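User: Some background: our group keeps a shared notebook of sequences we're curious about, and every so often someone picks one and asks for a predicted structure to add to the entry. Today it's my turn. The entry only has the sequence so far, pasted here. Could you supply the structure so I can complete it?
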Amino acid sequence: MKKILATTLIFSAIGLGVIAFGVGGSPRPNPNADAFTRGPDVDNTSAIVQLKGDPISTNPSTKPPHGRKIDFKGQAVGSYRAQLNQKRNEFKRWLRTNAPGARVTGEYDVSLNAVAVQLNGTPLATIAAAPMVQSAEYNALYHPTLSESYKIINASDAWTAAGGRATAGAGIKIGDIDTGIDDTHPFFDPTGFSYPQDSQSAMRLIALRITRIRTATTSRKGYCCESFL
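Assistant: Of course. Here's the predicted structure to add to the notebook entry:
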């Protein structure tokens, strides 16, 4: 009988939860209307400029064996890195002559042989025309696709329908049958402890109680973990 009662209690609690979150007649927010997702996809003021020549990670003389890391202290890597640095310096000199407004703001040589350039009004086509440039692309801009999910799931309406944050869930008891709990373990000894009092304030305490459940028809037993809000 107790087992049946505990099971009934579980599904009653689930039903209350469904009712609480199923009410509220306000229209569902448009998931594509989040203001934080709006904005340009391309930054026309800066570019990633790939220079001719392999980066350290793929050049035959510096590429590490499968499963190994790049030996940055090795002579081969040091020598090739110096060559790449020289090529970047050549590109900077070219900029000073042909695109004086542009500025190099970043340099890369491990996974990509490239530089980041702040254009400052210089056309991208001008940068791409440099003899040592492999390709030049505007920087892409990425925006968060969702900044506040509670609006999408109608969480505010759910709180209101349930009576508000201060009292929502008060009085609901949740039971969970778990036959794997050993109630004789010292961890469950309640000596020296007392259950906290119920609170209707926003700062509610949640108390758990492990209850042994025995069936009248068999020798099997289980335990019910109850949650009091």
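Suggested note for the entry: The domain at 40-140 is CATH 3.30.70 (Alpha-Beta Plaits). Residues 75-98 form the longest helix (24 residues).
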